[in-house]
Structure formats: C-alpha cells, structure tokens
What we know:
Distance between the termini: 156 Å
Structural class: alpha/beta
Radius of gyration: 50 Å
Oligomer: single chain
Number of strands: 12
Largest sheet: 4 strands, mixed
Shape: elongated
Amino acid sequence: MKTNGAIRARLLTLLALLALLITPLGTAAQAAPSATSTDTQAAYLAAQLRTDPVYVTDQLPREIPQSTAPDFAKLAQRTGVPTYVLVLPAQATTGSGLLDAVHDRLGKDGLYVLIDESTVTEAEAYGVQAPAEDAATVALYELPYDAGPLRSFERFADAIAQGAEKAAARAESAREKYGAGDEPADLYIGPSDREDQSTLTGVAITGVPLLMLLLVPYVRRWWRRRPGAAPREQGKQAKGKSKSSGFWILTALALATAVAITLTAPLLFDQTRSSASPPPRAIDLNARLDRVAKGLAEDPVYADPESPRVLDKAQLAQLHDRIAKFSSSKGGGPVFVALVPQIYEDESQGDEEAFTAAVRDKLGGQDGVYIVADPLDGYINVFNHGLALDTYSAFFDLPESISYGDSKADEADDHLLGERLDDLMVILGKTARTDQPTTPGDPYPVADPIAEDDLRPLYYGEFWSGLFLGVLAALLFFGLAAAVLGIVRVLLRRRNPEPLATSTLPHVSPAAPSLSYLRETAKTESRAMTTAFGTGETADARSLDRFEATMVLVDEASAAGGSGEDLDVLRPAALVVIIVLARATRAALADEDTTRCCGVNPLHGPAKSSRHVRVSTEGNRRKMLPLCDRCLNDTAPNDYPALLLTLPAPDDDSRRTPYYEDDLLSAAPEGYTKLGRKVRESTLAH
C-alpha cells in the first residue's frame, strides 16, 4: 500500500513538471506567429533604411511612385536631425510598435517617420530633440485630405525645423481651427467637378450673350415706357439710325462677351489633375511585378517582406509539401502562391486577376495555378492558367470561409491564411481533370495609371450640353425678368397712374368731385404734363404758355409748404385749374387744336361749340357756354344743372358751390389763354 502511494505521488509530480514545461512551450508557440511577423517585417525595413534613410514602397505607384524618394530625401534634410522615412501602405502599418521594432533593428538614433498613401501617420524621436507629435498634428490638421503624402511630409518637416515651442503653438492652433469646423479646403477637384465646370462654361458662353440680346432692349423699352417716364423726342430718321446702331453695338458686345468667357474660363478653371500624385514611370509600375515574379521563379510561395508575416515555418513547409504533391500528381502542374497585398493604389488597381496575368507574363507565360492571398485583408483568389482542371466548378464555388474567411479569421492577426491555404490545396488536389486546359481569359483592363488623374479638357463632354442649357437658362431668366418688370410696372402705375383718355372725360368726370379726387387727379395730370413737356425743346408758344401757367400753381403749392408732388395745400378751385391747364398743355404738345374747355364742367375736357344752357334749376336763367361733345349732343336742356361742376368747401365736402362763382375758375369758359392769364394775375395779387 505504501509502495503504491509513493508511486502515485511520484507520477503526480512528474505530470506537474510536464505541465509546467508544456505550458510555456505552448504559449511560446501561440505567440510565435505575431512575434515572428513583426520582427521579420521590421528586419526587412531596417535593412532597407540601412541602405537608404528614405524607403518608398513599390506597392503604391499610382499614389506615391518610388521615383519620388529623392523628393522625400530633400524634405528630410530640412528637419536638422537624422531622419528615417518609411512610406508604406496604411494597412501594412496597422497596430503599434512598428517604428519601435525598426529602430531596435536598425540601432540608430534619429527621427523615424511613417507615411501612408495620404499623410504622415506616425513619428517618433529616438535620442534626438524633435517635436514629432506636434509636427504630425500640424501636417494632419493644416492640410486637406487630398494634399498628398509629399506635401504632408513637407509641412511636417517645416514644423520640426521651427523647434518645439513654435511647433506646439502651431499644432494647438491647427487643432482648434479644425475642431471649430474651419477645415482647409480641398486642393483638387474630381471628374464630376470638372463636368460641372464644363457645363457652367457652356451655359455662360451661350446664356450670357443671349440674355444680353434679349434683356437689354427689353429693359430699355420698359424704362422709356414706364409710368412717369419722360418721352424721348427724336426725328424718325434719327430714331431709326439710333435703333440700328444700338442693335449692332449690342450684338458686338454680346459676341465680345462670348469670346471673353471662352478665353477666360480656362484661366479660372485651370485644374488639370484630380490628385496630388505624380504620374508614375514605367519602372515604378513594374517594380513590384518584377519583385514578385523573381521571387516566384525561385520559390513557388512568395511572401511580401513589407507586410506582416502570416505563415510560420510549419505552415510554410506544409504548403510547400502540398504544392509538390499536386505538381507531381496526374494532371497537376505548377502552383504559384503570392502572399502580396492588393491595394487600389498599386499597379493593378487592386485587381487580383490583372495582377496575376501581369506576374504570369513576367514569368514568361508560365502555366499553372496562381493563388493570390492578401496578407492585409485575408482574401484569397485562385486563377488557373493552362492546366487541364475543372476550375470553373471548383474555384468559382469556393467556400466563403476559404475565399474571404469567417469571423474567427477576421479576428486573427494572420487571418488564418495558413489553415485556409491548406484547405484550398486539398480542394485543388481533388479537382477533376479535363481533356483540355482551361484559362480565365484576358482580365478586364484597369485604369491607365499615367492618365487616370488627368482631368478632361474644359471644352469637352458636358460642355456641349451646357451650350444648349445656356439657351434655356437665358430664356427662363428673361421670362422671370419680364415677369418682375411687369409687376414693377403695375406698382409704378398705381403710384403714378396714367391720366384718363380725353375721349372718356365727358363720361367719367364727376359733377361733384370730392377733395381727394381733385388732389389725386391734379397730381396725375401734373405728372403726365411734366413728362410730356420734358425739356421743352419741342414746345410751341401755346403749349409753353399753358405749361407755365400750370407751374405757377404748382410752385405756389411748393411755396406754401408742399412740393411738386404734394398739391394738398391748394384749394379745390386751384386743383381744377391745374387739371384743366395740364390737359390743355398735353393737347397742345400733341398738336390738338383745342382752345376752350367745357363750360358746364371743365373736367369734361375740350369744348366743341357754344350754346345757351340753363345752369340752375331755379328760374329760367341761361348762360352762353362752350360745350363738350356729350353736353352738346347727348344732354337734354333740363339736365345741364345736374352736370354743372360744383366744388367742395376746403373743410367740408358737403357744402358745395358752382365752380364759376370762384374768381379763379370764372375765366375757364373763356378759354385756356384767359384762364392762364387769370392764374398769373391771381398770383401777383397775392
């Protein structure tokens, strides 16, 4: 019993020791992939910096060609301290510790800067005095997103050169402006913006000149004919010449405007590119392809050294074994695995099929199964070139867990690419063989990396439709302007009403007008007379005499505290005289042969003939009076008293007196000349 217990105790002790040994080994094994990944990536980048302190990746030729490395090197010299620059894809630098690992591997103090395809993303100072964090903030907030990595690094280097104090103040100011919404404006426009510019230019070239041709003559006519406007007296011949010369001048101005817009629009919209990235050279576009092809020519599995390692030694050995077995199997063949990122800014524009075709060309058209596994996002794509395999049914229906990975793969740093590639090789080994080799055909062409950022010419594409839209816009604007001017005309007419036509006066003139009616009518007739008279160049002696007599009363109103438009201070009789003489003045200017107004009611207008008429309902008293057409032909003898003009008292409209009882208006039946003389005499008497 004791012996058995001792043995059991010893066994438990051995198991405990084994557990202690196994646990750290297991932990180390689990940690190995990530540690190896970081160290390998850092070791490669450190080796590159040991050769040249500026390293520009070959995986971003559309955004940062390798040929820009000298430009980064010149900017790095501005910092005043040893500066090491790494330009890498953003996804390849995710996580923390890359600059620390590179510095440890390189073993040199200095300013280490990490730049992705858009801006400075990280900077650390090791053993030197440099405001790395503040300078990175300046580069981030002082520039718009589309400024580009080279301009971003330039701003960074300038901030470093200013010193810690100025860089800190500059970073704080930039941070405050950005936080307040004062973000810097974009430096470049896109293709849609250029289309908008082309459309706007087309609209302006046709719309503005056409609007000038339509609107200027219309506004000129509207202005001359607006209510209250003074007429322009010209001879017919001079008027015709003026219109003709004005038309040709306006046409010349419209054409000159169209030419000016055509010439100045390219100066205003002078953008030629939609990005800060310089056009790549052929060597930039082929650098990564040559590197991958060279690697695959030496080893069927090529892992991008710039990216984190996703396969450990055991997984890599297993993959090589699977490839060797498939290659030697019946109907099998070569397999090429490229663990290379597929990025939109690379030479293939992130198209795995185009990348595979280009690499195959670099390998001399080598047939085989090409597998592209992205170490950054974990996607796997398979393409068969020339092997007799039923890849349409095998590869097109790959499980998503292999092609894209599942949630577990998304959470893993290595995207479980080792396990998924192993599963893919199992499927590949089981793929049915065919009698004829298969190929995916030519890939879709990718955008030209040299010209993809070039903007279309301004006079291209949407410009032509803009010309048509310009015509429509001009017509629409003209219609709106005409409608607005029409509304203004109505408002002006209400403010400056047109005088009543002479032919309507006998029928619309009241026999007992109110004081307000006399005031408004006097203002209207006075305004119309002044407009018609103008400068007086075409006035004869008769119209001049009547005009001056009318203005005597208008000036009297002004002297009494009113104005040329404010006749409210005048008594009713004076208002009637202004109405009568203003109408007579316009009649004389129009060469109408009228000398007297209606004696029954001077507001009836010109008189045609004279007759004895009754002017009162009491008795049979008659007076010889000049009569208008209505009073002469359409009025019964007993109706004259009802048509006789009566005037309201200045302070009471209900008390009315016949007009001829007023000393000033008593001369109205005797003619316009005597009425004007009476006005002058009355003014002199006062």
